[in-house]
Amino acid sequence: MSGEQALICWLCDRPLGDIVQWHHPVPKSKKGKIKVPVHPICHKTIHANFTNNELARIGADADAIRANPAIAKFVAWVSGKPPDFDAPTR
Hints:
By secondary structure, this protein is mainly α. The protein has helices at about 40-50, 50-60, 60-65, 70-80, and strands at about 20-25, 35-40. It is about 35% helix and about 5% strand. Helix 1 (about 40-50) runs antiparallel to helix 4 (about 70-80).
């Protein structure tokens, strides 16, 4: 290993795989500038469960996102999956 620290997903805390997406906790359309690394499936799940207005109100509080029952169920389900796992998102 080259001494590089593996990136960890902002939502599920699993190591990231080959494909990393960058999520704006506060959407760009709401003047958000910070980006955090997430799995594609985690990114899709966030946006499937929250509007940009809701995300702007929550801000960068990952714990508040994970407290949502649908997100909590998703995080528990995805926790044992490999880093590059993907599936359709509802």
